[in-house]
């Protein structure tokens, strides 16, 4: 699950740790995997655990879906990106072994490098599309 958190024309992105098995030193959404829980419950838990943000389920809605293949012959994945209308707290670095820091980036000046499907999701959201396919031949 991925969190597209916007405020004042900027989006919250984290810089992944250099030892991360996925996309080291790339900017990415606040994200995580479900642990026997719903997608929204996962998103709320990850926001709290990774950045100290409190989000109510009623404030969460699906913003974008990316069906992605990261590499030729790779396993296809469906990435769900949610948006929170409201939240409490300011992002704090609570898992320094996974993320080097949280920053707000202008939507028209996203950082490099950035996880490809995250960049595609931001572009899709800005264009008003719900779905993107990426990496398919």
UniProtKB/TrEMBL annotation:
SUPFAM superfamilies: Nudix. Residues 1-127 form the Nudix hydrolase domain. One of its GO terms (cellular component) is cytosol. GO terms for molecular function: 8-oxo-7,8-dihydrodeoxyguanosine triphosphate pyrophosphatase activity. It comes from the Bacteria. GO terms for biological process: dGTP catabolic process. It holds the Pfam family NUDIX. This is NUDIX domain-containing protein. It comes from Streptomyces asoensis.
């Amino acid at each position: 699950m991925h969190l597209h958190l916007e405020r004042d024309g900027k989006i919250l992105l984290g810089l992944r740790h250099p030892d991360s098995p996925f996309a080291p030193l790339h900017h990415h959404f606040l994200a995580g995997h479900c642990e026997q829980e719903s997608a929204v419950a996962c998103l709320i838990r990850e926001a709290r655990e990774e950045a100290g943000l409190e989000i109510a389920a009623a404030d969460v809605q699906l913003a974008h879906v990316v069906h992605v293949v990261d590499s030729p012959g790779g396993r296809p994945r469906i990435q769900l990106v949610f948006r929170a209308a409201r939240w409490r707290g300011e992002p704090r670095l609570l898992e320094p072994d996974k993320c080097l820091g949280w920053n707000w980036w202008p939507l028209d000046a996203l950082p490099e490098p950035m996880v490809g499907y995250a960049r595609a999701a931001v572009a899709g959201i800005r264009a008003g599309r719900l779905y993107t396919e990426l990496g398919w031949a």
